Amino acid sequence: MLAISLSSSVVLAGPAEDMERAKDYYSKQQLTDAAVIYKNLASQNYLPAQVMLGELLNYTEAPVEATGWFIMAAFQGDPAGAYGLARAYSEGLGIKKDPQQALYWFKFSADKDYLAAIIVLENAYRKGSTLPVPVDLKQAEFWKTKREPLEAAEKKAYEERLATVQKQIDEKKAATKKADEEAAKNSR
Fold first, then answer.
1. Cβ neighbours of residue 106 under 8 Å, at least 6 residues apart?
2. HSE value, Cβ hemisphere, 13 Å, CA-based, for 30
3. Sequence-separated (6 or more) residues with CB below 8 Å from residue 49
4. What angle do CA 114, 60, 38 make, to 5 degrees?
């Protein structure tokens, strides 16, 4: 189990900067470093950190603590926190399995345009699931019409980020090539 300590000698910046640093640690699988930052921010009631700490704790097999952070975020109106809580209720992770509560929190999250929750509801209404909803193609279509523009926007944002990264790579390659050519020219 991942030990999370606030006694680290980490110097923290503003919440947004700290979140970026924690996400970088998380993406590099430096989970202890990420956890320290998330725990500090979550303890200061910073919603995105509460959700990420919940995700991290689920990942490290601490579902009871994870669910506690999802509850805190969900009860403050955060759609990602509500989605994490819905998953916990749906799967019985860190809390007693309760399909009715799972449905409530999935709907809460979906009503705030949280894509993952919308997909869960669309599939539940289209195919049936462990959620207490009947197959209802009208409801499935309702959620589909909410899903499609959100997916398109998410895809566009991803493509823009990808293009920015590619441009940076290309610029770095060009600068390196130019520097190599200059070095070769000067060494003659």
1. 82, 83, 86, 90, 117, 120, 121, 124, 131
2. 10
3. 15, 18, 19, 22, 37, 38, 39, 40, 41, 42
4. 60
Yes or no: say if 82 and 96 are a contact pair by the CB < 8 Å rule. Answer: no
Judge contact between 103 and 110, C-beta under 8 A.
no
For 166-184, write each residue's pLDDT tens digit.
999 999 999 999 999 888 8
Structure tokens at 24: 């970088």
* Count of CB atoms situated within 10 Å of the CB of 95: 19
How far is residue 24's CA from residue 27's CA, in Å, rounded to a whole number? 5
CA distance 172 to 147: 37
**CA dist., res. 125 & res. 140, Å (int):** 5
141 assigned to some structural domain: yes
Structural domain boundaries enclosing 128: 62-186
The tens digit of pLDDT for each residue in 86-119 reads 999 999 999 999 999 999 999 999 999 999 999 9
CATH of residue 164's domain is 1.25.40.10
